[in-house]
Amino acid sequence: SIPVLEAMFAPPASDFQGPSAPPASMFDSVPGYEGTVAGGGGGFLPPPIPSVPAPQPQPGPGQSNWDIPSISESTAREALAKYVSSKCCWSSGPVKDGVITNMETFNTYRYRLETFTEQRVTEWSQQPYLGQPVDAYTQPPPGPWNIPAKTPTFFQNETQIIKVPNTSSVKNCHTCLGMGRNPCKECVGVGNKICWVCKGAGDRASGDRCHHCQGRGRENCNHCHGQGSKECQTCKGKQQLLVFINLKVIWTNNLEDYVVEQSSGLHMANLSNVSGKEMFRDSQYMVYPVMGFPNPDLVHAAERLVREHQAKFSQTSRILQQRQSIELIPITKVSYKWKGASHVYFVFGNEYMVNADSYPATCCCTVM
């Protein structure tokens, strides 16, 4: 019947909404912010050339005592005992009965350079227009590096977002084309859908009228409550957007380590999770490479890292502070005998961490 044909008809699905991303024409050209785009991607803004010469790095304080005492035999034995007790099914026999035959100390140095930088990047942002102040064109906005920002504690990462003054204007919403609502995708804008019970027939197989749709063959769309449209999620139904430039200020602690190679046999990766005794620390606007250190490899690495950091980060960032330190990480190679065979383990770091890959009694389970 004709009602059934009407019930079965629905307009073809189409994309009723405007563009999901705001068009470039939506944003004004703002002096000093010409490269700014929506959603970021405008690139980091290089800092201006300082009006006064940057302070020159000064030599750090000297350090003459580069050694620390060796650990005692009892400390080495206690460290192994603690390590073995943390392992399931490891026997404590070698700890109790093993005889330490030699303890050899290795001084391993870790140089650390930290460069604390400030970066600035801009992006166009938007929010529903609710009557907020509009200040675009009232006067030129301040430059991105002239906007004050509260610097956090040095060497701590932080990000701050600041609305750039004199860049706010009102535009029609690009998603709903200024209508405040978008056609419902579930019912393609008609407000109802084919009844899922009678499949649009209006009656059941028995010939009785469908009670779900009251014989209409269609039911109201539950996504839009029969209205055929839904509130625009971009402008929240306000039809207009406040568009403005956000300045993102990013403070980053750029950290790099260099560990002097050592011949103890302990893999370098083990040292990443331990601390050492700090032998030297120097913090200033720009540090001077380490002087008077007895290990030439560390001296060369420090010179290289200081040069690389100052060249790399000054291109896209403002360097606020640098800090360098040298830690002496103690490594003790312990040789011992147990049941006539020789074995080795390592004790390292201030935490007395243990590496015992060749431990001779890794299973104490007994098969009955």
Description:
It is a single chain. This protein is of the alpha+beta class. Helix content is 12%, strand content 30%. It has 4 helices and 12 strands, in the order αααβββββββββαβββ. Strands 1, 2, 3, 8, 9, 10, 11 and 12 form an 8-stranded antiparallel beta sheet that branches. Strands 4-7 form a two-stranded antiparallel sheet. β10 and β11 form a beta hairpin. This is Ssu-2 homolog. It comes from Esox lucius (Northern pike).
How would you concisely characterize the structure shown here?
The protein has helices spanning 2-8, 73-85, 93-97, 296-316; strands spanning 99-128, 158-163, 169-172, 181-183, 192-194, 218-220, 229-231, 240-259, 277-284, 318-338, 341-348, 353-355. It has 368 residues and is of the alpha+beta class.
Topology of this protein?
Layout: H1 2-8, H2 73-85, H3 93-97, E1 99-128, E2 158-163, E3 169-172, E4 181-183, E5 192-194, E6 218-220, E7 229-231, E8 240-259, E9 277-284, H4 296-316, E10 318-338, E11 341-348, E12 353-355
Antiparallel strand pairs: 1-8, 1-10, 2-8, 3-8, 4-7, 5-6, 9-10, 10-11, 11-12
Protein name: Ssu-2 homolog
InterPro entries: SSUH2_homolog
Organism: Esox lucius (Northern pike)
